[in-house]
Amino acid sequence: MVQSPASLQTAPASLQLPPTDWQWAHEKSVCEPAQTPPVASDSQRSPAMTGLRLYDQSEHLLLASYAMHSADTEGRLHPEPPHAYRGPFARDRDRILHSSAFRRLSGKMQVFTGEMGIYHRTRLTHTFEVASVARTIARALRLNEDLTEALALMHDIGHPPFGHCGEDVLCERMSAVGGFSHNEFALVIVTELEQRYAEFSGLNLSRETLAGQDVRAHKAEAAVGRAALLEVQLVDAADSIAYDAHDVDDALQMGLLSIDELSELAIVRRALDLVRGKRGMMPIHQLRQSLVHELIDLQVSELVNVSVEMLRRQEGRNHNDVCDLGVRVDHGETLRRERRELEAFLFDAVYRHPRLIPVRDSAAQRLSELFDVLTRDPDRLPLRFRQRLHDHPLEKVVGEYLAGMTDAFCDQQHQYAMATSRGPLADW
């Protein structure tokens, strides 16, 4: 959603933002008389032309030169007429939000399963948190919020059931066909498996949105040479900021970690010092919540401050220029080192916690057994996936079917597959 100019006039004192084009234009108008633009006749106007012209003008005033402007989009694989009042990336965002694959994220675990309580994040709540952080950064850096939000909402849409253990199972069982990547599967979902239009398969998203997800699927290649769009980069940063903070929150709430254990980490000590300096002593549940807030705010603020200084030198260049120059946003070296320490700690202390291992092993076994059933007897695949066997290898199709499941749906189909019935399993 395009923000009004008023929303950009103030910023926290810690963020030294450059003047926006809108502010420059406002100051300029004080000294110069306004010029009346030519008025089109009624025969020249159309709702789509008028709405998009205003949309483009708003972006020109609000966005930095190096942002991805809607007017510069390379369009869609299947051409469509412009919408009367939504830009191309706003339409992408809405198509992702209304897709069935997006809704299924509510039934997919992030790290902890439903057997371990209801407080912890799911893929859906994680996705909303990433979108919130990413939009905040995009607004501060004067980047395209619509594109940023579309990319954030899409980024985990390809995750299989049972979190990373589900991905590990599929990657191993699909090794003969190149393994499995949830980032690549997200592209399959939005270009092939979602069926919402009579004219074409998929959601027909803008090329920039698809290219941004492709960068996630090939991170190693994207880390060198020509850089991805800045909007793509900040969604990746927002993802890691969000999951580091909420994994801390969930682990503390479930008693897998203590504040004392976490305080051995430099970034947590820094956040705790900030919390106690602002609020003093407080009950443990409030300290946990304040710590998570401070962890996010600390990382977002530094990323914005470092990026603002770097991007000052790119004023006047367009999105292609900064990509060609290899401009990349990131934290400073100290915070990067502290974040690596936190993530290594979480990997050992949380993701490999003794309470988590049996749950993960049991889920992995059920998923693997379903894979065996379907590869032995492909006729048990739903009709839509049996039809895909004409163009794709069996292991790939079985993996796609399983990857689209929610945790509960996977358990239901496993129970049905292990019973005496030999009929096809249900489609999701």
Automatic annotation (TrEMBL):
Protein's UniProt keywords contain Secreted: no
Name of the protein described by the UniProt record: Deoxyguanosinetriphosphate triphosphohydrolase-like protein
Alphabetized GO MF terms: dGTPase activity
Similarity comment text for this entry: Belongs to the dGTPase family. Type 2 subfamily.
Annotated coiled-coil segments of the chain: none
HD domain ranges (all copies): 123-244
Family matches, as CDD domains: HDc
Pfam families, alphabetized: HD (PF01966), HD_assoc (PF13286)
Origin species: Novipirellula galeiformis
HAMAP family linked: dGTPase_type2 (MF_01212)
NCBIfam families: dGTP_triPase (TIGR01353), HDIG (TIGR00277)
GO biological process: dGTP catabolic process
SMART domains linked: HDc (SM00471)
Keyword terms, alphabetized: Hydrolase
